[in-house]
Specification:
By secondary structure, this protein is α+β, with helices and mostly antiparallel strands. The protein is 18% helix and 29% strand.
Length: 300
Amino acid sequence: MELPRKVNPALKLSKKTSPGWYFCCGFCMYCSCDDIRKPYGDKSCITICVFHNRNFFMDGQEPSERLKLFRKKNTLTQMDVANAIDRSQAYIAKIEKGIALPSQDMLSRLRNRFGLSSEWLLYGSGPMIVEDLVLKGRTTAVTQADLSRPAHGDFAMDGVEFQRIRRWDISASAGPGLIAVSDDVGDHISFTTQWLIQNGINGDLAGLIRVSGDSMAPTIFDGDLVLVHRGEMSIENGKIYAFTLGEEVFVKRLSLVGQDQKSGILMISDNPLFPPHLVSQEEAVTLRIAGRVRACISSL
């Protein structure tokens, strides 16, 4: 086959991978067909540049097939791999269908989590597992949780099920109040399902938010993460809640006041430097309980 007319001399032909089409360079995305960059997988592309002068298919397989081979050899599902490297199952499926190549970030995560060789996954060269990259204590297989059980987790390790709790990209004030600017999901922290059940927490109704301010010290410090259970919306006197008052977000203890406990709501800080605040009737109509604070994660 002849080279296209407009071809960079720093390029060379790759081998045919299947009847009638070729891949371009999966690293730099350079396409020699018209001397412009195109997405990986454009079927008119026929080159791999000399700077990445490797044949993707040395063993006659594509990266998609090698990833499947790795999974099956280690009895992992797509979801197991996705959970282990904090990526979506849909992304793993795209790679295994040949729609996308593993990103450099994913290659790094696979290498650090499983010791999977990037050279083997991309090119089929060398061993599948690079032994000196497998970290001790990080070789436990991540398996799918028992979906037949009520309140099952998202994944299991050594027979222990875990559920991933979302961390919301908002901050709540343990001080004068913060404006809620975003409720996007940031990342996740996993808790054992046993702990969640023992504490009466529905993981699907829980989330983590970061606290700003020191009005709840020494119970909650500035920068701590708190687990908010949205399954507990009714005020129980003296318990800590995350709530909005107007447009501001707070983490405080709440108590109902009055003989009938209907005369008002008292916001109480654990730090004695911050006096209690009685929510006025005008303010009360804007108070919305987000959930009860059930746990706190602190940094040392």
